[in-house]
Amino acid sequence: MQAIATQARLHDAYGYDRVLIANAAVMPDNISTAGYVAAVTERLGVMLAHRPGFIAPTMAARLLATLDLLLKGRLAVHIITAASDIETQADGDYLTKAQRYDRSREYIAILRQIWAATAPVDHQGDWYRFTGGFAAVKATKPGIPVYFGGLSPEAIAVGAECADTFATLSDTVAGMAEVVGKVRAAAPAGRNPRFLMSIRVVLGETEDDAWASAEGIERRIRDLTPPPVAGAAKPVAVGFQRTATLAQAGDRLEKCFWNGINKLRGGQSNSGTLVGTPDQLVDALMDYYAAGVSGFIVRGYHGLRDVERVGREIIPALRAAAAAHDARGATAG
């Protein structure tokens, strides 16, 4: 618990907007963790990963609204449909991937319906049926922000239709521009979701220092990584297939995108990395911003040290650069 509190307070102090609290079949309960984070922070938001199908959406709507009140309006929910049949079956869910995405669409619609309802509502859909669904507890805002991700055709269709923010794994600027274009093309009229990308960083006082640090990280991880198993299954998720393909494109791409850890792990990780000085990393992140990505999950390789350094040397400079970019756009418009 002390480690969670330390991490949360450090992110709170250094100006991070949100932290992602992940969810998977074997992980500790992230809803309980989010409640604890709420108790030890003042302004830090939570992006709570949540899988449909394991509790009723009416119950989830009340649970999430309650958590948002505890967080004083700082909650967002990241709907995780799951690309792996093996993992979902570990919790007793035997639907196909296509069925899970279809269920997620209906689940999100019910969450929003319950959050907005001023009187009990009935519902009969393909996946859920209830009579008199209602939440006496209400979120602090009309609706809790919904994140959604994935690169399969099903994921893009549901995300474009339902997400407030479309979230992706690490990618190059060119790759993210392609994702932004696909999602916007699939979005119904009037919908304009934001985009968020996860990215790792390696910082150095100089460019040479940063790359030397990256090489040291690669050596340490190589020593800890078991050799690939002959005939091992290829990634099932389209996003990880994309990562595997990207890893074969070269160690260094664009300005400072590094594939070293992606290559070591055969595309089975979300470890695309930007390497350089703080100024170089802000410049690289602004290329993504110009391509339509307005949010980043930024992670380093050195735990609390990187939390502090990103908060001190990246976040304020990136916010200033984004504000200047937006001001130039407003003037040009």
Question: Can you give a write-up of this model?
Answer:
The protein has 333 residues and is α/β, with parallel strands linked by helices. It is built from 13 helices and twelve strands. The protein has helices at 2-13, 30-40, 57-70, 85-90, 97-116, 153-162, 173-186, 207-224, 238-247, 260-264, 278-290, 303-313, 315-332; strands at residues 18-21, 45-50, 75-79, 121-124, 129-133, 146-149, 165-168, 194-203, 252-253, 257-258, 273-276, 295-299. The radius of gyration is 20 Å and the shape is globular. It starts with a helix and ends with a helix.
Give me some keywords for this one.
333 residues; ten-stranded mixed sheet; two-stranded antiparallel ribbon; alpha/beta; single chain
- What's the shape? globular
List SSEs in N-to-C order: HEHEHEHHEEEHEHEHHEEHEHEHH
Q: How many whole angstroms does the radius of gyration measure?
A: 20 Å
> Terminal Cα separation, in Å?
50 Å
Question: Structural class, please?
Answer: alpha/beta
Secondary structure: number of strands:
12
The number of helices is 13
> For the report, how would you describe the main beta sheet?
10 strands, mixed
- Give the proportion of residues in helices: 40-55%
The parts where pLDDT drops under 50 for at least 5 residues are: none
The proportion of residues in beta strands is 15-25%
Rounded mean pLDDT score: 93
